[in-house]
Write the structure tokens for this entry.
Amino acid sequence: PAPGTLPDRLRFALASCQHYEQGYYTAYRHMAEEDLDLVVHVGDYIYEGATDASPLPGGNVRHHVGPETATLEGYRQRLAQYRTDPNLQAAHAAFPWLVTWDDHEVENNFAGDISQDNAPQKAFRARRAAAYRAYWEHMPLPPGWVGQGLDMRLYRRRIFGRLAEFNVLDTRSYRTDQPCGDQRAADCPGRVAPTQTITGPEQEAWLLEGLGRSTARWNVIAQQVFMAQLDFVAGPLRGFNVDTWDGYIASRDRLMAFLAGHPKLNPVVLTGDFHSNWVADLKAAFDDPNSATVGTEFVGTSISSGGDGADINLIGRTALAENGHLHFHNSQRGYLRCALTRDRWTTDFRVVPYVLREGAPISTRASFVVEAGRPGAQPV
């Protein structure tokens, strides 16, 4: 729509995490048949490992070509292989895409120039540059970005009239290293260190400045990893995934404080990575259940990563019991379908019952609504 106009509606899908070996892309076939304006993809478009690097019980359903990606030729081959899938092709053909990467486009759990495998920095920077170049070659990104290498700035803002403003983040390229030794269920003083940043100072300033001057009805933050606090250890002890915003408390506190001070933004955070569906209130202070709700986070499940999944798993049950700001969990595969009007945001959790064989039907597992001026999601 033309700048300054107020469209009646916007409809888009949110997707992430499409491990080629771990399932068929049936969800994309159904997505291509939806009435949408846009697809937002928040990362793990490819997985970098060699074939059978992460086998499912009983074996993967198809296989990567070549070893773990580390060179420009390797990343080109892997992206090209993923793009041979006819269902993924159909979704690309049907809609424009707004994309950002997470970690597997380069290497699992990397943090800026820091490799998970402690590779020498010079070698890892060359690997990142190769991955970024191949990603640009295969994805709908501006032509002028070619040749920028590690300087390719993926975070950007896209405006849909006065109805919605999308702030697309890159929480991989500028973050400090994960605290607590990057352990899965961790809680250590490093999480709250003021020097911990998941966005880097320049991107954080860009985000807050843009939100501060936005006149959009809905302000969307499309990004990679769980933003809400997620304690998934039962009982009095606590444990967090420090690869998410739970490892970067100072970054999250600054953003939550900003949103609390700008109550008219109607912020909605869109997240992937976790291979499951969630709905969360974003709180001014997550350890105080009585603190203000300042926004909503919708976490979308994977397209195929993790295999068939289940309606709910042990992590989901524990997390719902331990975190009062969480309102929904489901660990099947699929995507989110979001419909926006001036006064109402509706998110449908679209799921398929299986991906280890083809032909799965699609259904809506749950729907939640956010009303403009009322932070937090309500079940339909």
The first helix runs from residue 26 to 32. The longest strand covers residues 326-340. The helical segments are 26-32, 72-82, 86-94, 121-138, 201-213, 249-260, 314-322.
